[in-house]
Amino acid sequence: MNIILKNIIRFVVLVFIQVAILNNIQVSGFVNPYMYILFILLLPFEIPNWLLLILSFFLGFSIDIFSGTIGMHASACVFMAYVRPYVLNYLSLRDGYEVGTYPGIAYLGFAWFFKYALTLIIAHHSFLFVAEAFSFANFSETIMRIIFSTFFTLTLIITSQFLMFKK
């Protein structure tokens, strides 16, 4: 399947899952699963940074439109996309990344993907929840939301990797 078509389908499916199912899940206000960021995580290594930022903005903006959150998801996704090349550089393999491979469990293994996804999910959730609170008044509550939502989102993303995206 064409790489562009594959990513368009992934974009639409993840936005639909987020809006139709996951936005309705909240456990006592601390757990908010955000699986839509899997789109950013799975973009190819070779994608230009400018395109990565634009696609991330449109992903977050799509979620904002359906959630009524006025730019919070868009800004968090752009931040995540901005940090992604640095994380990839930090986690890079000795010989670099092969052309045509994707940052997924099927290509690079569980340990690498776990570190990669965990780092970027923490970056996204920290930005999102701090921007949402926009105050240090309930800082411990914000930290708890970041931790619990990161754990739940990471569990969903890794489970989806094992179920759907096999080599």
UniProtKB/TrEMBL annotation:
Main localization (coarse): membrane
Protein name: Rod shape-determining protein MreD
Family assignment from sequence similarity: Belongs to the MreD family.
Membrane topology of this protein: Multi-pass membrane protein
GO cellular component, one term: plasma membrane
Gene: mreD
InterPro entries given in the database record: Cell_shape_determining_MreD
Transmembrane segments: 7-27, 33-58, 65-84, 104-131, 143-164
Record lineage: Bacteria, Pseudomonadati, Bacteroidota, Bacteroidia, Marinilabiliales
GO BP term (any one): regulation of cell shape
Subcellular location: Cell membrane
UniProt keyword annotations, A-Z: Cell membrane, Cell shape, Membrane, Transmembrane, Transmembrane helix
